[in-house]
């Protein structure tokens, strides 16, 4: 009797430990990744005072300088922490469709408090439910601008490949994100 009680306690402990270990693992193939419950809130950077025009123009200037250095024609937008356009630049020869896309990328990065690359990567992994959220764009080239640990705005670049947009956007974001 004591042996079976001891065995039951050991098995129960093993099951609890195994269950806790499984809870920390990513979902197995075929499982819904939305069923994973993170310990902490992801992308939880607080919003701060909206970016000033001077800082927004400096970010655009750095992005345009990087694009010029590489010979790429892009559109660059900076929005405030609420997703409202602060400043914009359309380089000579940049594609017209990318005017709205650059602003869209910046707006999404600010509103969702994450780089738009996060949406691109999630969709590539099959988390297509993200495409049902309002105003999402699953294309890299939108980066939040963080000062003193708070989002003050975001920059969005469009007109080239996603990776080129991101390189230029990163150069602009570097004026704020240090």
Observed structural traits:
alpha+beta; 43% helix; 178 residues; globular; 5 helices; 4-stranded antiparallel sheet
Assembly type of the chains comes to: single chain
Biggest sheet, spatial arrangement of strands: 2-1-4-3
DSSP strand content: 15-25%
The run of helices and strands is: HHEEHHEEH
Tell me what you see in this structure.
This protein starts with a helix and ends in a 5-residue tail after the last helix. The longest helix is centred in the first third of the chain and has 23 residues, at 2-24. It has 5 helices and 4 strands; from the N terminus they run ααββααββα. A hairpin with a 2-residue loop joins strand 3 (142-147) and strand 4. Strands 2-1-4-3 form a 4-stranded antiparallel beta sheet. The model is unreliable at 1-24 (pLDDT under 50). The chain is globular and about 45 Å long. It is α+β, with helices and mostly antiparallel strands and 178 residues long. The chain has helices at 2-24, 53-70, 97-111, 117-124, 162-173; strands at residues 75-80, 85-90, 142-147, 150-158. The protein is 43% helix and 15% strand.
